[in-house]
Structures are given as structure tokens and as C-alpha cells.
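User: Before I run my own analysis I want an independent prediction to cross-check against. Here's the chain; please return only the C-alpha cells and, at the end, one sentence I can use as a sanity check.
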Amino acid sequence: QVQLVESGGGLVQAGGSLRLSCAASGRSFSTLGLGWFRQAPGKERDLVAAITLGGGSTRYADSVKGRFVISRDNAKNTVYLQMSTLKPEDTAVYYCAADPAVVRSNFYANRYVGQGTQVTVSS
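Assistant: C-alpha cells:
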């Protein structure tokens, strides 16, 4: 069993930066594909970034390309989301998720999911 706990959310002005962290318990972290999702009020919970087992491959939603960077530290059982040049439309609850080998695009299909951290970007 793996538990995921997000941290690092908060209030930031437009143009600012935040780094989210998701710490995982358990011994199988290096065997998991990982991803960050977000859900704004009244919208779907969408995948914004994903990373493969060893971190060699990443993918991003078009809306965050060039601004967000996902990374992982398998020694620390942690996945990060570095968010830069934040915009008010990035305001959402951010969740991490994990699944064996490759994270699934449907948040609810992933074997392990976190509880979320709020990010608010003021204009």
C-alpha cells in the first residue's frame, strides 16, 4: 500500500512560483508512474503533468507547457511540481496520483491518489 501526501500549496500573486511536493510511503515508489492533476471549481480533474519510473520521460498539458516542471526523487520517495509564471487560471486543488508503471489519465483510475493541496493565484 502506498499513501501520497501533497504539500506546498498556498496563495501566490500572478507571475510568481510555487513548488508542490508529494511524499509517498511504502517501498514501491520507484515502480510507480506519477502524475499531478488539478481541479478548479466547476471543472474536471485533469492531468497536468506526468513522469515515468526513472524520470526519463515527462509529459504536460498544453496549458502548462513551458511553465511547469515535474520531477521525482526516488531516494526520497517524492515527486515535485515546480510551477512558474503562475496565472489566475492555475488556481485549483492539485492532486498527485500514482499507478504501477504509468500514471493513468483518468485520476480515479489510478491505484494511489492524494488528498490535494490548494493553489490560489491572485491577479
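Sanity check: The mean pLDDT is 96.
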